[in-house]
Amino acid sequence: MTREKELILVVDDSPTNLAILNVVLREVYNVVTATNGPDALNLAASEEPDLIILDIMMPGMDGYEICDRLKANPFTKDIPVMFVTAMDQERQEAKGLAMGAVDYLAKPVSPPIVLARVRNQLELKKQRDFLRRLSSVDGLTGVANRRSFEEDFDKEWRRAARHQAPLTLLLADIDHLRAYNDAYGYLAGDDCLKMVAQAMAKSMMRPGDVIARYGGEEFVGLMPDTDAKGSTVVTDRLLNAVRSLALPHAHSDAAPIVTISIGVASCFPHRDNDRAGLFKLAGDALYAAKTAGRNQAKIIEFKAEKVSA
């Protein structure tokens, strides 16, 4: 999910301190606030901020405990945390940095210092995110790899469950790629994979939609906020994009050109759903598309409350 402005979560039990930091930051960034630990943890998980500015001294759950819980959660552990403190700086900085904080702001805060340090940390985060994205790209096709997809699938599942929104999963195979490799050679087969992958990726029009290589000639796609009916537009685009490549395939019984088969499954995730169940339904739909002659899509909409594997 892309944002026009970076999102910063500010956590402080003092309304005055929250107001000061909000005024300093809001001209440049989007800002959300929390006044206690539980709210901060919930917002961090649901909003996925780019940076958290966290006061140390708060009643109940202090900043150290919040930071510790953030770093223990695999979904929030990579969000950079900056502490705000008026305490003994050297001793508290050492403790906070050991817990995973990236920087400190001293009270009373100085607006130019706040903006400079926030900007520096967000730039560092952009660099880390860029390197992470590089490690998530399939080396042959240039689309996302399986590891990247698994991370996106988990993230979008949790987001859909929170917002009671639909989520659609698709599985796609290149029809008779083995026969293509036998007839035209494996180098041509690799070129075919690259062109099909890029054609599919360009057909996923929205920023949140994902296409990834799952293995061999298999691809997987994810469409947040999309139900079964909405997915037909995307599957038609994918099928036509690959057909438009017009790659000759004399040894396919589906068409004289390279084609794909697609299986699609949609549901409304919630905490008790099983993601593997949705994956199985998409696999069943893909099998149905192949059985029906390939070069087509089959869609399954799961309307019940739970998906069972």
Automatic annotation (TrEMBL):
GO molecular function, a single term: diguanylate cyclase activity
Residue positions where 4-aspartylphosphate is found in the record: 55
SUPFAM superfamilies membership: CheY-like, Nucleotide cyclase
Catalytic activity of the protein: 2 GTP = 3',3'-c-di-GMP + 2 diphosphate
Annotated EC: 2.7.7.65
Domain Response regulatory residues, every copy: 7-122
Swiss-Prot/TrEMBL keywords: Nucleotidyltransferase, Phosphoprotein, Transferase
Ranges in coiled-coil conformation: none
Domain GGDEF: 165-302
Pfam families, per database record: GGDEF, Response_reg
The protein's name in its UniProt record: diguanylate cyclase
Organism: Dongia sedimenti
Lineage of the organism: Bacteria, Pseudomonadati, Pseudomonadota, Alphaproteobacteria, Rhodospirillales
